[in-house]
User: Fold Xanthine dehydrogenase family protein from Pseudonocardia acidicola.
Amino acid sequence: MTRVVGTNARRADGDDKVRGAAVYGMDYGQTGTLQAKLLRSPVPAGRIRRLDTARAAALPGVRAIITAADVPDTTSGWILKDQPMFAREEVRYIGEPIAAVAADTLAQAEAAVAAIELEIDPLEALTDMDAALAEGARLIHPAWESYQMLAPGPRSGNVAWESTLDRGDVDAAFAAAHLVVEDEFSTQRQHQSPIEPHAAVGRFEGGRYVVHSPAQFPFLVRDRLAEWLGIAPSKVRVVVTTIGGGFGGKIDAMLEPFVCVLARRTGRAVRLVNTRAEELQTAGPRENAKIRIRTAVSANGEILAQEADTIADNGAYSGEIVACAAVPGLVFGGTYRVPVARYRTRVVYTNTAPTAAFRGVNGPYAMFALEQHLDHIAAKLGMDRRELRLRNVVKAGEAIANGQVLDDAVFEEGFAKVEQIAPWAAQAPSGNPRGLRGKGIGAVTWLTNPGPGGATVKINEDGTAGVICAGAEIGTGAVAAGLRQIVAEELGLTPDDVIILAADTDAGTYDGGAQGSRTLFSLGNAAVQASAQVREQLLEVAANLLEANPADLELADGHVQVTGSPGAKVPLAAVAQTALYTAGPISATGRHITPPVQFDSGCLTGALFTGFATPTYHVHSAEVEVDPDTGKVTILRYVVAQDVGRAINPQQVEGQIHGGVLQGVGYALYEDLRVADGVTVDHSLENYRLPTAFEAPPIDIALLDNPWPDGPYGAKGAGEPSLIPVAAVIASAVSDAIGKPIRSLPITPFDVLAALREESESPAKGTTR
Assistant:
């Protein structure tokens, strides 16, 4: 029975955030800090013919101007190293950095940027994937073969990366099928849009670069800076400020290299913050994608085979999308039984801003396509949509398309929980008698992102515990609540007696970043390991003070006490102070890495994610009402059954689910980062439509208790997956309401009205044999 784990303990950062005392990245500064501004490319593709900074450098207050001539001629990247720090000879997207200015004031920096003389000879801009893939298309990266890679992967020309999953005789299975259904889908770009834009403050001191940044993955930022600057990673220190939201958009380096070089050039601290327009124009949104999928089924609805071809927009340079190229295939073949499969994903260069990680990378659009496709199959078979899913969903102990066995799958429990909360045959109340009603349901397997992590736990001389790690608190509460609870549980303390140092690459051991729901899983495991060693040290010292055997001692309420004799005890403060002069300071470091997933290695190529590490299982349903006069979609009810292993802090988990669902609502109904001829049309949050509290649906949540044996107290990842099914089940519900298929996102009122006004549905591609 746990005391602290499983309770709704308060976050360590809550008071400061509520009271406005938290210092976010964009707020951080110090006396004498210079202000920086970037000169960005005004065209999507072209060759730089002339770049003259002399007139700008002579303006008042200007302290330094840097260009590609001032930094090493090298490229960097997380997986595929194709991105220069500055455009050197050629620009590849609107907004690409060409020069950076540091001045006494922001107004002076902006004036200097405007005074830089720039001439560019335009090149043919390939601003959509079809143009980039066309035969004879201009190569966006003519030197693509020379780029280094973190891991080998199939590439060619404007295809930055390709991943395939091929298992069984697909052609034979399709030839023998009762029914073959084929569909095509497309999805848009979605921007993370955290309240805080990208920001960085850099200094150069003691021969090293020090960067203060709201970075989700500080060690990746460190390593990217080292690559661009041609120095050892140990020459860079990244200190994580309070993060004002990220959702994947602050995983990689963006503004940090510019403040570093300017700081060294000027000898002063330099600050650079994106405007909202720069955020939307350049700061790595979720990729747009196109999916073609077809499935062979039996007469009773059993999936016999499936193939899908996905193209995802990489933009001009490669970020996390190439790392996750295998994810669509895992989504297609990871929830419902697909015995024979052929999946291909190509990540395509275009002359647009690079795309990047966004909560659930590559997952939401794949699930949208799959679930709409299953609805089409059910319609062709005349079968209930929920029944089709139950007939095919993976059960515990069964293998998925990559050969991985899901030993702890709990989909049947998830479907049952959703049915208990919102019966499939029932209707939610509504006040619109003319409204068209529809329901959707879907399921998905997701992963707890693997990656290394470590934590050091020490006992302070006043009996409190300190935790040193490089895990960034992105806002989930994983560090500010969950990690404190785990250490408190292990050491018999309250969470308020556990102090966690802000993430810092100099202080903490390597950590894989706040991404993919991994933070509490990885750091929690490391903290449990470290705390166990600290406990042993405490008991050894306390045994002498209590004249008892260490095996007869326990930690409780800030004391070491004799088990069964609560009166025989000594405060942790006394134990820690005694240890200083007997055994030495009490501390220990734990480490964690997720074991590799067991899968059929022969069926995958170009896959950096080969399976679902520490898998989680999710069932969502939605009921909507569509106004036939306006096309407005109202979500009447939303239900989530989510496997979290075990909830360390149930309230924090439910908060993540609420936030993920609302982001999914935005993806389904509102958000569309529009790019026309390489120009990002949306430049503010006035025209980039985000959902608000008024669009938040009623959400019912069932946390599925499914402890993972290798998780801290049974926990799995919980922050990311609640977003992934949302667009899929909302689209399914809208399609059910209007009686027409949904082939693209977002589903705007104009799209709904256009569908309602169609005289008949487009000819179906399903064929029956």
Observations:
- The longest strand covers residues 303-315.
